[in-house]
Amino acid sequence: MVAVVEVRKGTKSFEEAVTLAGYGKYNLYVLLATGCALMCVIIETMNAMFITPAAQCDLELSLSDQGLLYSISFFGVVAGSHLWGYLGDTKGRRKIVLFSLVSSAAVSYIGSIIAITWLFILLRFINGILIGGSSAIIYAFAGEFHDNYYRPKVVSYIATFVAIGNMYLPGMAWLILPQQWEYYISFLDINFRPWRLLMIVYATPSLISALLIYLLPESPKYLLVRGENEEVMRILQNIYRINTGKDRTQFPVGSLTSDESVEGLKHEKNECMLSSMWQQTAPLFRKGYLLKTAMVCYLHFAIFLSTSAIIMWYPQILNSMSDYGQVVPSNEVTMCTAILYDEADYKNDIPEVGVGSGIVRSITSQICIDTVNEEVFLVSLIIGFVYAVSYIFIGTFINTFGPRRLLIGLMTFTTISGVIAQHLSGHTYIQVALGVFLVAATGVGIVNAIVVELYPTQIRGMALAVSLCVGRFGAMTGSNIAGPLMLYLCDYMFYVFAASHLVVIIMVFLLPKKKPDVPKIDTVDVEKTVTNNNTDAECSQQK
């Protein structure tokens, strides 16, 4: 029996070793911790949908100020994304995520007691930069605790927490914003009202998530690339112990070999930061990765653009249809006629529903009204629930159908729904069709799974950071073009998005194909074929 153990405790690749460590309670905790961190990214970048309208009276926000606040967090994420990707690949995933979560929460807490408009906007921009660290790194961090079989599933399941964040936002807003209390704080010269408490409630999950991440070690695959084999063995033994219930000394691996070159992460010791950043970024745009990088960047850009354009304006669309439904029978309401009717009301100086807010605001009156339309909360909760179901479906079947087939099916189905919504009559039918279109946002999780497959460990964090940065730029673009599209080209708006999604589908067909899977114990070969699709075919034969 001893002889058998000695034979099994040989040298294994990381993929073989992490497979032998098993999948169980430890991995579920990784999923929980990293998923909560991603949820915090959504909460911090999207909370302007509810904070901005409710704060418009206290901060005396103009329409341009409100528009800026809707997109300023995305600007921050884009501004810091490249730097975070570099730091994640050179300084460690865990350190960056921890700093990102704690610092962004601190800035939000400070913002909750600010009464100066420009300073409040600046703090939201800084908050976007800081929370962008988690956005850029978290997928790579989670994926590197798993082998090739579980990695795409876990990355997809993590995206389920995006849906939870989208439910947390309206849920907490619905609970807090309708309250009518306020307290004057003399030394700050502010009225502490429900929206300020809501900011604190939105920031607190970041601290809880930081605690969950703190209890995790650094990514074992990252440490292996850095040459810290002993620490990697300790982590894998601990994973084995928790997952199997056996003693860590029974872990059937004696030593590890690195699957990927460690040279890509050694240069920062002898080079300045800018030079090191270039060394991390340049491989993404060189032969073998340039086409992949361009393609995944466009996938993120197109999905973020269309879904962010609609989700940020969704409350305005709902309110426009509600207003128009009081003039004509509900079953005769169409999206574009309702929007144009609402715009005509605005020009005639009658009460208007604030852009992207669900807030009733009188144009002619000097009284500022910041009462939230509760229908916005309910519909947002329903959309968040649909997101959750979609992400669970994707995580369950991503290995069965493959990420490419899932993405093609998702984009086709949701695009058709969006085009149909443009021509439907009836408030309820349009709501449902638009809600289905917004499910396209779950495609971001599938694209992230594809990115994790396509790039090796030493540039994976940067690849995710760059592609998500382009995606956030798409979100900013979509939020800004949606208004003019609805007002001047409403009848063609979803055809614009459909054309963009058609290019997505074509690009997915052209993405490098994953080689057929081999048994899980031999996943080292799969890793090489996935992360080096355009390299010499001998890599898949090196066992």
Automatic annotation (TrEMBL):
Gene3D superfamilies: MFS general substrate transporter like domains (1.20.1250.20). It is found in: Membrane. Its main location: membrane. InterPro entries: MFS, MFS_dom, MFS_trans_sf, Sugar_transporter_CS. The keyword Mitochondrion does not apply. The chain crosses the membrane at residues 28-55, 67-87, 96-119, 125-142, 154-177, 197-216, 295-314, 376-394, 406-424, 430-451, 463-486, 492-511. Residues 28-516 form the Major facilitator superfamily (MFS) profile domain. It is a multi-pass membrane protein. GO terms for cellular component: membrane. GO terms for molecular function: transmembrane transporter activity. Keywords: Membrane, Transmembrane, Transmembrane helix, Transport. SUPFAM superfamilies: MFS general substrate transporter. This is Major facilitator superfamily (MFS) profile domain-containing protein. It comes from Acanthoscelides obtectus.
